[in-house]
Every structure is written in structure tokens, then in C-alpha cells.
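Protocol step 4 of 6.
Sequence for UTRA domain-containing protein (Holdemania massiliensis) entered exactly as in the expression construct, tag removed. Do not edit the line below.
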Amino acid sequence: MNYRPPIYMQLRDSIIKKIEDGEYLPNEMIPSEREMAQLYDINRMTVKNAIEVLVRDGYLYRIQGKGTFVRGEKNKLLLGTAGSEANYGISARAKKVGMKASSKVIFHGFVQGYPTMSQRLRLDVADQIFALHRVRYGDEQPLAIEYTYIPGALFEDADLNDYAQVSLYDYMNNKNHLPVEFGQKLMVVGCPQREAGQLEIDPGTAVFCFEYTGRDRSGRIVEFTRTYIRTDKTNFRFSSYRSE
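Step 5 output, C-alpha cells:
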């Protein structure tokens, strides 16, 4: 007697094969339940059961109001320079792969007298700079430590916000100085001792170090950020194009 698994399990196996074969890519939205029901000529409840199993087993994740997506490698950020997501922040990237994103502010306040940072922001050394240092978490695991600096003259009340709860970019947008153009630099470095403690890794462990400078619509530099990101929690992707 030949055993045939239930139809929803056959559909589950078919979707897993499409993921493994690269037909469905990480963080890509799969067809809707209605579309799958039509494609496979089965009822939507069968599709729903298959999707629920795949979500439970970690192959897929749902975003309310948007759809169902292929989960990337579990508990890993997807970084890179591909497409419209190139400038996504850490929290947005964590949420995109199904992690619960959170932040811990380890310092925020106005500083001055830092020639290197003043130069990055095209400011005089005597000008005030607002500094925001945060540890970024995904599913309560440290992913990155982020050092952000913005011109104090443009953001005089920046110290009044709780940046564990409030988006820095929402605040900058409200001030009409949201960064919309970015220059980026990527390095792989040995993690300094101070950052290693926050990231819960050994000092000297290889980490990604991103530096980027943000300009607002007028072209003015409004942000400099340096971020150390754990390589064991990250996949890196980029796109290249052949010139004709």
C-alpha cells in the first residue's frame, strides 16, 4: 500500500523545494493564499495549513498587512548595496528578516571639541554636535553598536527624545533635515575591546564596520554614523552590473 501525505504537506514540500532551489529568495514575498490555491487547484484552507506549518518551522514569516515572506538565514541580518534597501537602518533590516528589533541607548547628549567628528560634519570644532550611541538588538541578541552624530545647530532639542522608543530619522524628518543621500564605506576590522563587551563577543573578533555620511535634500551633511556589526549575525549581499 503506497502512502501519500496529505495535500497540505505536499504543498509544504513543494514550497520548501522552491526555497532550496532559489526560486523563492530570502525576504521575498511568496504568492498569496488565493494565488496558490488557484495555481495548485486546491482550496485556500489547505494552503493556509501549509503556510502555517512553514511559518512554525521557520521557513516563512508574516508581516501584517503585507504578506508572507521567505525567512533569510535564521537570526541573520541581510546587509549590502542592492536595490532600494541599501540605506535601511539596523532596526528595519532586523524586522525585515522577522526579528524583534530593540535598542539600548548607552549615551546621548551634546558634545564639542572633537576635530575629527567636526570635520566629518563640515563644522567648526567649537560647534555643538549631538551624539547618540546605541546597541541594536534582534530577538534580544546584540547585533550591532551604532555611533551617530548630527549637527547640534539643526537639532537643538535632540536630547529630549528617548531613542530606545523614538526613531531618530522620524525626528530628523520632523526638523526637515532627513538624510536622503548617503556615502558609505565598509571595512572588516577586529572588534575593539569596548565594543566587544557590548556585542558579547571576544575582542579582536572580525566585525563589519560601516561608516556613512547622510545629506539632506539641500545637500547639507546632517549625519555621520559608524556601526560595528557582528559578522556571525549577518549576511552580506551586493549587486554588480556588466558594462556594455
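Step 6, annotate. The longest strand covers residues 101-111.
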